[in-house]
Predict the structure.
Amino acid sequence: MKIHRDPPRHVRNTKLSSNQDDTGDDQQVLVDRFFAARRVKTGIVELWRAIQSEILNFSGGTKKAKVLGKLKERYNALLIDMDELLSFDDQWRSELAKQATNEVAETISRLQNPEDCNGSRLSSGMIECGFGCAMHSLVGRFDHAIAQNRRFIINGSQSDYSNGLDVIKENFKPISSCPKENTDLVYVNSVCDMEGCDLLNKTKEHSSNIRDYKYVHVSEITSFHMGAFKPLGASKQLWTKIVNFHGNPTAWWKGQLLRYIMRPNEAIERMLEEERAQIDFGEPIVGVHVRRTDKLFLPGENAKFHYFREYMKHVDDWYDRYELQMRKLGAKHNIHRRVYLATDDVFVWEKEVKSYSSYTFLGTREFSITAGSSRSSRTSENGLRSIITDITMLSNCNFLVCTFTSEVCNAAYELKQTYSVDASDDAVSLDSMYGVVGLPNKLLKAVYDHTEDKATSNMEFKPGDDVFILKNLWNGTYDGWNGRTGNAGIFPSYKVQYEGKYCSKQTKLFRKTFITVD
């Protein structure tokens, strides 16, 4: 599979020891330099968002557009220079990425294809929700199984998209080499936290330690993994490696598990290869996912309506920067601007794309008609395979424009991380940042004082405070809370910085499971 990436750049010969716990001073300098360069790049991006927000508040529409147009090329040139600076660390980061990927693959293979199929295992059904939601629930339980050194079993895999079909069996490879087993046994209620599981209702005849049981069935996960915390299944040593080479370690980890679960069977692989051949990923292409219809009004959803032009603004920005980069490399030809469009609203195909005649739009228009016509059509076998196709094709694009309130968008972004060393910057969301809405998604360190101002909802912190991001407001400010004081509020992005830190425990967050005595 040939997937086009950014223009080639020279790889510098800088190496990092594979043993991150015994990193020498010189090697630590490489890690520190990479983090410093990433902080500068983040600062440039956040400054540009602040500038746009301030200028758009001025009067005079035509003048504002001219000013922003002039500044945008300078901004793009700065980002290109920053990417060149970051390329000094390509080699050692690639080595770490390879080590981490191999370690995860070996762990999964050992657990899922054991010599003794009667060893410790953890089973789960698929919750009845949309395909992306169902896949992410399995990823969470798979993570839990790895943490307890258990083989993961999927018992029953119907979701809202399956319409009675077995989603895993009909579309993906078996998750384990072991035969399917009878799991109709007596369940004991239990609750799990980050360090393991204890019985919720302790009795004399049952041990209070989940590790005393060979078979554990997870019926429901009531907590969410937050980006500021280390996943259950990743060891501290492995997590340190991931943090050192990747800009969004949580997305990388979930991408590895999701890619394993979604390994296509022969029929699905043929279907995907045919779609890839029609699109030609050897040339640059931006993926756009527009989620509307029931996502906008279902209870518990956080999505809001966004006009198609909001998505296309970011597509324009990516191609403008890409063309500037190619010009710097001496390219003379014009770039063919292409978009892979995935949407459940056929109106986007019928009306909104017509305003962008300079673009070629590719994608499954038929699925948009199916998805928007009725729920039964969307949840049919054809609907299920269309959503698998969209997630896969979106993940293969150079850049992704979507809304992170959508599980499909998250899945595509996570899979995208498995195709390169670090694709954490290769997506933009119109609504929330990556992670769980309203929960701590990144741990930052305060580097400047900030004064509380209740009139503007600004919170107070001091240098050295742990500050958790709850939401990026996309205007140069974050909404978050102070780990020292417990206060929440808004603060400027430049007053905090990412240092690769994370929390190891999610206190007071639990998972509900059932234990079967084996």
User: Anything to note?
Assistant: Confidence is low (pLDDT under 50) at residues 17-22, 185-191, 193-202, 507-518.
